[in-house]
Amino acid sequence: MIRSRIEQVQAWEALDSRGRPTVAARVQLAGGATGTTRVPSGASAGSHEAKELRDGGDRYQGYGVRAAVAGVTEVIAPAVIGLDAAELITVDAAIADAQQDAGEDRVGANSTLAVSIASALAAAAEAGTDLARWLAGDGPLQLPLPMINIVSGGAHAGSAIDLQDFLVVPHGADSFAEAIEWAQAVRQRATEVAQRRGFAEAVLVADEGGLGLRLDSNEAAIGLVVEAIEAAGLTPGEQASVAIDAAATEFYADGAYHLAAEGRVLAAEELITDYAGWLDRYPIVSIEDPLAEDDWAGWQLITERLAGRCDLIGDDLFVTQRDRLDRGIAEHCGTSILIKVNQNGLLSRTQDVIRAAQQAGFRTVVSARSGETEDAWVADLAVGWRAGQLKVGSTHRSERTAKWNRVLELEATTDTTFAHPFPGAAEGSVRLA
Ligand code: PGA
Ligand code: ZN
User: Fold this and answer.
1) Whose CB among 62, 152, 313, 327 lies 3.0–4.6 Å from 206's, allowing a Cys bridge?
2) Catalytic annotation, residues
3) Domains in the chain: how many in total?
4) CB 286 within 8 A of CB 292
5) Position 1 in a domain
6) Which helix (H) or strand (E) holds 75?
7) Are residues 195 and 111 in the same domain?
């Protein structure tokens, strides 16, 4: 008997952190091992990402995933039962073929990802190990540097400000535990600073656990994070810096960038000039999606101008798709890629994307979504793939802490090293080696 042969696949509707349904699946192997997963879901999703299947209609305000669940049990299950879960690429190829035959209106990316992840988790369990180790092979595991959300805007906080995330990156920490301790101090101080300034809403948390504040400008959010870093007793730029996820696709329309909270409409060049000014004034290690998902010319321009000064991370630009990453590498767009497994839909294909990025000298950030669950496997992906960085929101909300807690567990119980993706940050440069 091949103990890692897939024997049973079950699926059902579960809830995510926004109270919306999501696909859950359980894969059982012949030897008895199981893997269970719930898939995440984005709010500021890129238009080129793999499509999740939603039911529409009245149930759950249209967010139901009964069709996607049926896609698992009726289409994918028969295609993978009998396959060896230890052969990730074979399982994923069968899932992809089944989806192609049945069509994306019967099998969504939420269906494919559920089975892809659940089989990998089951295979790792059958091998007597966990997903991080199963993906990493031999040698010490490399823990990622966390990037932690402090101020939230855009689609995650009722568009209080236009840019989506202002994060702290505790790059001077010596361990993951220290990095989390510093980040928590910054998050806590940010609440206090905001309360002192009269923001009553500073006690509330946005979708990813950050502060959703009605600030006067986007730049004010950067200033607040820097102030919180100082209030936490840390040296900005040396011990901890700022990262921004502009999520610019969300405020791009008709060829221009609309900063509604500031009443300004900017061309790509003007927005890039804004960013350059911020880099002059604040310690910023990375800007994610500084420009919109199809503004390749803008991306080329910003990469030419700012790549030596901070990381430029493509999220909606690359959507964890190999063809878009290859174009970005060829056309010099970006220096780093956000890796979200549900943008792709399959674990092995996502692994191919991160490997290609690493080979091209891009930095890589494994990321959760704004709609998450208590599952922690995204932490195992960051560790197993040696991504260097992990972005899962703030130090608040259990669907976020589940992931940090998973890395803390690995650090406490396993032979690990800690990534230092920004060795030059203290000298004011994150230039790639
Ligand atoms: P999303 O946001 O999950 O809502 O897409 C996360 C991000 O933009 O990085
Ligand atoms: Zn993003």
Assistant:
1) 152
2) 208, 340
3) 2
4) no
5) no
6) none
7) no
If asked whether residues 164 and 109 sit together in one domain, one would say no
Pocket of ligand 1 (CB under 6 A): 42-45, 164, 245, 247, 315, 367, 369-370
Mean pLDDT across 226-236: 98
Instruction: Tell me which residue has its CA closest to atom 1 in ligand 1.
Output: 42
CA of 46 relative to ligand 2 center, distance in Å: 9
pLDDT one-digit tens code per residue, 65-120:
999 999 999 999 999 999 999 999 999 999 999 999 999 999 999 999 999 999 99
* The predicted structure's pLDDT at residue 428: 61
- Using the predicted structure, report yes or no on whether residue 393 has a pLDDT greater than 50: yes
Q: Which residues form the domain of 86?
A: 6-128
State the CB neighbour count (10 A cutoff) for residue 308: 12
Whole-Å CA distances, 231 to 71, 176, 300: 51, 21, 37
For 234-275, how does the pLDDT look when each residue is reduced to its tens digit (9 = 90+)? 999 999 999 999 999 999 999 999 999 999 999 999 999 999
First to last CA, the chain: 49
- Confirm whether 391 is domain-assigned: yes
Our mutation pick for probing the ligand 1 site, out of 39, 370, 389, counting the most ligand atoms within 8 A of Cβ, is 370
Distance from residue 391's CA to the centre of ligand 2 (Å)? 10
Question: 374: domain CATH number?
Answer: 3.20.20.120
How far apart (Å, rounded) are the C-alpha atoms in residues 24 and 139? 32
**Stretch 139-148: mean pLDDT:** 95
- Tokens standing for 45? 């999703």
pLDDT reported for residue 157: 79
**CA 367 to ligand 1: nearest atom:** 9
User: In this structure, are 388 and 240 located in the same domain?
Assistant: yes
Write down which residue in 100, 128, 156 finishes a domain.
128
Q: Which listed ligand is nearest to 245 at the C-alpha?
A: 2
75 and 149 co-located in one domain = no
Contact predicate 70/106, CB 8 Å: yes
431 pLDDT more than 50: no
Structure tokens at 344: 């792709």
pLDDT in tens, 352-375: 999 999 999 999 999 999 999 999
Pair (120, 161) in one structural domain: no
Q: Is the CB of residue 99 less than 8 Å from the CB of residue 107?
A: yes
